[in-house]
Amino acid sequence: MVDLQGQYQNLKSEIDSAIHTTLDSSQYINGKQVSDFEIQLSQFLNADHVISCGNGTDALMIALMALELKPGDEVIIPSFTYVATAEVIALLGLNPIMVDVEYDSFNINIDAIQNAITTKTKAIIPVHLFGESCKMTEILAIAKKHNLYIIEDNAQSLGTDYIKKDGSKIKTGLIGDIGCTSFYPSKNLGAYGDGGALTTNDAILAENIRKISNHGQSKRYYHSMVGVNSRLDSIQAGILSVKLNYLNEFNQKRCELAQFYSSGLSKIDDIILPQESKHSSHVYHQYTLKVKNNKRDKLKDFLKDNHIPSMIYYPVPLYKQEAYKNDKEEIVHPVTEQLCNEVLSLPMHPDMKDDQKVYIVDTIKTFFG
To answer: What is the structure's pLDDT at 331?
Structure first.
């Protein structure tokens, strides 16, 4: 699905130099490489504050802690997303309220958000899934009307531009109160281990986030709030600094590969191609087909037989996962359930070779005859 080895070979000299810089400094935690990377990422995003942390899941949990939500508070999330979005809510004693998504974009449904709001609702976590932004203008309006916080799950969309109604652009992760991202190795900006970050333009939130991620302290051994131990290590920061220099180029190559796929597969009636919206650019963390007429699993098997990887993101709705089932209430989100039965993601990375992408398209064409 990704070619991490190929990317490393292309950047080997720069990455090796960054690693040796850390080794020579012996500053492995909160070293200069970490602060330099945070500054570099803040400049890339035009963010006032970037605070790195241990991973994307921690970023979501720290964001919720910084907003000082209380046990029993409700947080609205999409039911078609990775489990981490719900996991951190449950860990903090909050209540994840799952709502349906849009079929075309895979992203959270605006009407479903509105219908789910109660007196206990305190926050919304829109997930910018697969590389495209949610409809943030509408979500901002709902949040303002009901006095709700917005935490953007930006783990799959780092570098995406949200296009406002006046035509101006802002990076996802900076539209709500706090943005959260992941540097898991397969992400558009991936480390060689775990890593994450939070973004905000609110100075008070930034101060609290920085404290929480470092045991609740701003001065060593003086703890003003309950925190966690979640820090990006210096080796990963150095690697990310190198790769961030290439992120726009990598994202552009992803877009070009997506265009190649779409052009080559456009005449197949049994698949629906990803559609780009007018309110967002797309960085194609995933290129996800919808395969109709119960042919998805057969196509996946056919690709495997022909040595082509593919993935189903996600095969089971969150509300049907054993950990999140509600035995007192049967939940059915029809769009989420349809997507779980139809989606199939193809290999997507900036180091795809021409013969590989041609082979993938030709093999899919062969399956559909």
So the answer is: 86
Strands, E, within 118-188: which ranges? Answer: 121-124, 149-153, 161-163, 169-171, 178-182
Question: 144-192: per-residue pLDDT in tens?
Answer: 999 999 999 999 999 999 999 999 999 999 999 999 999 999 999 999 9
Question: How far, rounded to the nearest angstrom, does the alpha carbon of residue 125 sit from its chain's CA centroid?
Answer: 12
Cα 193 from Cα 182, distance rounded (Å): 11
- 287: preceding bond cis by omega (within 30 degrees): no
Structural domain boundaries enclosing 232: 4-244
Residue 312 is predicted with a pLDDT of 98
248 CB-near residues (< 8 Å, 6+ apart): 159
Q: Identify whether residues 157 and 260 lie together within a single domain.
A: no
16 three-class SS: helix
Q: Are strands 178-182 and 169-171 parallel, antiparallel or unpaired?
A: unpaired
Q: What is the chain's mean pLDDT, rounded?
A: 97
Q: Is the pLDDT of residue 286 over 80?
A: yes
Domain limit, last residue, from 224, 244, 264: 244
Q: What's the whole-number mean pLDDT along residues 199-210? A: 98
pLDDT value of residue 233: 95
What's the rounded Cα separation, in Å, for the pair 296 and 4? 27
Say if residues 55 and 182 touch (Cβ distance below 8 Å). Answer: yes
Closest CA to 155 of 253, 229, 63, 66: 63
Looking at the fold, whether 161 and 288 belong to one and the same domain comes out as: no
Last residue of a domain, one of 225, 244, 263: 244
SS3 59: helix
Strand partners, 272: 290
Is 90 exceeded by the pLDDT of residue 248? yes
- 210 with 84, same domain? yes
